[in-house]
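Board notes (copied after class):
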Amino acid sequence: MGQAPAEARGRNGASRRPWAASHEGGFDRESRDSAASRWQRTAATLRGRWRWAWLVLGLVVIWAPAATLYAIRSWPRDAAATRSGNSPPASVVASAYVPTFETSLGDVAAGGIAVVTLDECATPVAISALHLLGPSGGLSRQVEPEVLGRVVRTLTIDRIDLGSEPLTIPARAIPMPNTAPLGKKSRDGDVVAFWVDASTGNADASALQPLRLATTTPAPGERVWLLAFANTTSDESMLHPATVEARNDDGLLWYRFKDPSITLNGTSGAAMLNAAGEVVAINLAGAKDGKAALGCGNPVTRFGPALREAVRKGCNDENRGRPEA
């Protein structure tokens, strides 16, 4: 008979069966010694692994509560920006409007405008950017807040999607004296407001679909949407998502758009919305941060208190907004 392979031979040259075969006929001394060594090594390995297991378990016990607490605290803000389906109702697109202001200095057909309702009065209110009534809108000079009622004659509100007949109404400004165009300091910022009276105008004002004015400003990290027709390379929608970056010391709310190709020309005065479809700011301008597209707006918590107070005072005034004879 031929010899067994060299790796299966004993020290004295005698043939040794492989492990499986030798198990059937019992162990020789060398096999027993080898098995004992293997068991010792295995036991040492298991003891080392148990030490690591206890160490990992200890770390989990220590850090799990802290990680859970952090997740709970950060969830509302992060979830608002990332939770699937968390966006304004599709119906808000019908509330995207553009204005035309007839003034004694010329007509202004620029920017956007938002029609909103407030708890202080059933009559809707139109809000936009004050700087549109100046050189930015094509006028020779800026219309100051205290003379709006004498300079602006009519206001035409037109749906961007042409879904209804434009509404032209007498321009009855809501007095907000502590406002100023972008770039100038003021308490209430760059905003202008007009009554939208259903009893006047060339069309049925009830066809308008007002939005609600929010009572809070979104925090950094929260998602907001620009309601306007803006040029982009990736999206034809009129709802353009952005993430709030910060609110600066000058009172402006800054946000970073998801689509860096967006251009904000012609969107001053358009509404910035939260996920509930409420107006949280009036868009005012845009800027570039490298390849990123930024926007800034006048937040509702800045101009909202003055607007609500003016609306409350003027709601029951039949002559509200009419210029003095």
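Comment from the instructor: The first strand starts at residue 97 and ends at 103. The chain has three domains: 21-83, 98-208+308-314, 223-302.
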